[in-house]
């Protein structure tokens, strides 16, 4: 089993098409705020390993730096933020070259439970063709 410090090296050997990065805080000029040095290093390596990086943060995370470690967002990324985001909190992130997706207004409805007894069965979602 690889040592924890080897994860960054392992990630450098793959090229995912897209990476989703969560944020405990997001500060313009500093990047993602995370609770451990290992998380900061891994998120930065993931940012460089991918072709497309998506950062998911709700409005309360913008401008917040609750932790001492940071993963710089020094490559293009797309920020996915909810509609309650304050334009003043978004402005410094946009100035850094960040592209914002249309605000997320609500979570999609959860699909019904899959029928039992059929391995791999997928439940139909209301409103979608079956």
Describe the protein in words.
With 130 residues, the protein is α/β, with parallel strands linked by helices. It has three helices and seven strands. It has helices at 7-12, 37-49, 87-95, and strands at 18-22, 25-27, 31-34, 52-56, 69-71, 78-80, 99-100. Strands 1-4-6-7 form a four-stranded parallel sheet, covered by helices on one side. Strands 2-3-5 form a three-stranded antiparallel sheet, with helices on one face. Helix 3 links the parallel strand 6 (78-80) and strand 7 (99-100). The chain is globular and about 40 Å long. The chain starts with 6 loop residues before the first helix and ends in a 30-residue tail after the last strand.
DSSP strand tally: 7
Content-based structural category: alpha/beta
Residue stretches low in confidence (pLDDT < 50, at least 5 long) are 117-130
Mean pLDDT over the residues: 76
Proportion of β residues? 15-25%
Shape: globular
Strand order of the largest sheet: 1-4-6-7
Largest sheet: 4 strands, parallel
Residue share in helices? 10-25%
Distance between the termini: 43 Å
Features:
four-stranded parallel beta sheet; 22% helix; 130 residues; three-stranded antiparallel beta sheet; alpha/beta; single chain; disordered C terminus; 19% strand
């Amino acid at each position: 089993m690889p040592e924890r410090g080897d994860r960054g090296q392992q990630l450098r050997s793959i090229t995912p098409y897209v990476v989703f990065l969560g944020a405990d805080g997001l500060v313009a000029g500093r990047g993602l705020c995370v609770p451990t040095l290992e998380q900061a290093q891994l998120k930065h390596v993931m940012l460089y390993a991918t072709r497309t990086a998506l950062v998911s943060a709700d409005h309360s995370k913008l401008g917040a730096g609750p932790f001492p470690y940071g993963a710089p967002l020094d490559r293009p990324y797309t920020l996915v933020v909810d509609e309650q985001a304050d334009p003043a909190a978004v402005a410094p992130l946009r100035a850094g070259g960040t592209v914002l997706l249309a605000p997320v207004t609500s979570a999609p409805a959860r699909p019904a439970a899959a029928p039992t007894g059929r391995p791999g069965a997928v439940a139909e979602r209301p409103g979608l063709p079956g």
